[in-house]
Write a structure and sequence with these properties.
284 residues, TIM Barrel, disordered N terminus
């Protein structure tokens, strides 16, 4: 690892802060500590293009071939540094100096990697060998669009077996909303179907980013359509929703059109979600 000592914070999710290819640390406001990120998309390629995305040079595509041996060396080495070195003291605020998860997130859709199931197994093996299994969760942050693929299902099923969980992105409830926010042509029925399937394979939280676009907040009709997607997916199978605003600036062309919602707006939407029987964690 290289570079000057730099304090990490919730607004800095730089993928190169540890100087590694696949592994990077962030302070996660939603997870509540140090999240050891695994970036299976170092080519900055994703099958979606969310207008709030903070990935520089984002392009359409899938993950490149993954060097699993290198990934394992980096993950083992970095966890050892967190546990026994001075990285926490030098780079992490005192109140966040704990490892809370290994998170497959990074610069694109992690389930697009052909090696995705093997990478889940690898993370489980490293946690077991370092004595962190049962203490540190494995999380997969996904847009859920590839749930129809057998190897994606295999990886998520294994994630569930390891006590991990998926955070499934749902930012809207209409085809127009997905087109406008996520840059994809997808139907609400397809989103609900994939969310339901994901929840059957492993514990699945919904992850929703809300913001104003051109000064307009999400309207009542769009919010109701979003709630309909959650209901259609089967709320009884979902632990809850992570509802959050814009913590970091977008690096997409639409950046100047986006603005944060006030806390009371997010809380009002959270009340409607809770009425479905779901827990909601709100982060501005």
């Amino acid at each position: 690892m290289s570079g000057e000592a730099k304090q990490l914070g919730v607004t800095d999710h730089s993928r190169d802060s540890a100087g590694l290819t696949y592994v990077y640390p962030v302070v996660s406001r939603r997870a509540g500590g140090v999240s050891v990120g695994i970036n299976l998309n170092p080519n900055n390629a994703c099958n979606w293009r969310c207008i709030y995305c903070q990935v520089p040079g984002l392009k359409r595509g899938t993950a490149p071939p993954i060097d699993l041996a290198l990934l394992e060396r980096e993950l083992r080495g970095f966890i050892d540094t967190l546990l026994h070195g001075d990285f926490m003291r030098k780079h992490v605020p005192e109140d966040a100096r704990r490892i809370v998860d290994i998170a497959f997130s990074g610069n694109g859709e992690p389930t697009s990697a052909r090696e995705f199931p093997d990478a889940i197994d690898l993370a489980g093996r490293v946690l077991r060998d370092t004595g962190l299994d049962g203490k540190v969760k494995i999380r997969v942050i996904t847009n859920g669009s590839l749930l129809g693929r057998k190897r994606v299902q295999q990886g998520l099923r294994r994630l569930g077996e390891l006590g991990g969980e998926a955070w499934f992105k749902v930012d809207a409830g209409s085809a127009d909303g997905y087109r406008r926010i996520n840059g994809v042509e997808i139907s609400p029925e397809s989103v609900a179907r994939n969310l339901h399937r994901c929840a059957q394979l492993c514990p699945t939280w919904v992850q929703t980013c809300l913001f104003a676009l051109d000064g307009a907040i999400p309207g009542d009709e769009e919010v109701q359509a979003y709630l309909d997607v959650l209901e259609r997916a089967g709320c009884a199978n979902l632990p809850g929703v992570h509802l959050y605003g814009l913590a970091r600036p977008s690096l997409q062309p639409e950046a100047e059109r986006l603005s944060s919602l006030p806390q009371d707006t997010l809380e009002a939407i959270a009340v409607r979600i809770r009425a479905l029987g779901l827990a909601v964690n709100v982060s501005v």
